[in-house]
Design a protein that fits this description.
The chain is built from four helices and no strands. The chain is mainly α and 108 residues long. The radius of gyration is 17 Å and the shape is elongated.
């Protein structure tokens, strides 16, 4: 694989962010509905933990794919090859923190 192709693949790994968000929504909404969660009500702790675990798995896959592609590009000498992996990892951390803080401070 040449350097340009490896660099393109590393940057395309950023597509893991919207894919993980959409995947979390497509799995989380039916799960909340199945659990009988009313619109605007606070989720029980067990449901919040299950949903957060699902988000962690989805973003974990996105981060893993990005790390693999970025590491390959770095080994081929692409400058700044790890930047996309850092962006995906930062998006994962922000998403998990946002969900956790949002749940902890919801008093509905």
């Amino acid at each position: 694989m040449d350097r340009a192709r490896a660099a393109r693949r590393a940057w395309f790994s950023l597509l893991g962010i919207p894919i993980a968000y959409v995947g979390a929504f497509l799995i989380g909404e039916p799960l909340a509905s199945w659990a009988g969660l009313e619109e605007g009500s606070r989720a029980p702790v067990w449901l919040a933990v299950v949903m957060m675990a699902m988000v962690l798995v989805l973003f974990g896959v996105a981060v893993g794919v990005s790390l693999r592609l970025c590491t390959r590009a770095r080994s081929l000498g692409v400058p700044h090859a790890m930047v996309p992996a850092w962006i995906v990892a930062a998006a994962a951390v922000v998403t998990v923190l946002q969900g956790t803080v949002g749940y902890l401070f919801s008093w509905a």
